Amino acid sequence: MSHVYIAAQRHPLRAAKEFATLDALSGGRVIIGVGAGHVNEEFDLFGPPFEERGAGAGRGHRRLGGRAHRGVSDSSRPRWPASDLSVSPRAVQQPRPPIWVGGSSRAALRRAAQRGDGWLPQTVRRSDMRDQVAQLKELRQDLRAGAPIEIGALGACSTSARPDHELPRGTVSGGSDRIARTWPS
After folding, report:
1. What is the mean pLDDT of each run of 10 residues along the chain (185 residues)?
2. What Å distances lie between residue 155 and 14, 124, 136, 167, CA to CA?
3. Which long-range contacts (CB under 8 A, 24 or more apart) does 25-31 make?
4. CATH fold for domain 5-154
5. Taken in order 127, 128, 129, 133, is the CA torsion positive or negative?
6. Using CA atoms, how far apart are residues 157 and 149, in angstroms rounded to an integer?
7. CB contact at 8 A, 54 and 6
8. CA-to-CA distance for 168 and 176, rounded, in angstroms?
9. pTM of the predicted model over 0.85
10. Where are the domains of the chain?
11. Distance of CA 72 to the CA centre of its chain
């Protein structure tokens, strides 16, 4: 699983080709994790403008999940114009690999409910998870009644190595006993 691929920053046909190739090489085991992104500096460098990331994520998601995995794709969009292009090799999973939507904003929940096969929560406090899952299920019922949706989770980052540098916030380090004690039972 890509966790998470920022769809607004990359050409959707190139992404479809890359994910189809990975799906073919892995024997049909790819899950496409997509998100809108949240790091301003990445958008300053790669575009589009940060304020357009949600719309770009929606368009990218639609194109990743659309005709690009089934054959020829066309687009008159100014950012990613394309016509009469096909993706090869084809993905093993049909009609396409599953797409899971990352993020925990209301917009991300809506994208997951509307277009996703799964949801990847991001920075959700355990105390808020129940409410977010309820919102997701309600949105899913409104937008795609009866369609199943998977719900993922992020495991804590951990290392048993003795790092010689500062670890990212929230990373647990130490022996296996210490790491095991950090996981809920």
Report:
1. 84 84 94 87 86 74 59 56 72 91 90 93 78 95 96 75 76 78 63
2. 29, 12, 20, 16
3. 26/92, 27/92, 28/91, 28/92, 28/93, 28/97, 30/1, 30/91, 30/93, 30/97, 31/1, 31/2, 31/97, 31/98, 31/99, 31/100, 31/118
4. TIM Barrel (3.20.20)
5. positive
6. 25
7. no
8. 19
9. no
10. 5-154, 156-185
11. 24
Please tell me the distance from the alpha carbon of residue 173 to that of residue 153, in angstroms, as a whole number: 20
CA distance 19 to 31: 9
pLDDT digits (tens, 9 = 90+) for 61-114: 666 665 545 555 555 556 666 666 677 888 899 888 999 999 888 999 999 999
Token digits for 2? 């890509």
Ramachandran bin of 138, using left for φ above 0, alpha for ψ from -120 to 50, beta for the remaining angles: alpha
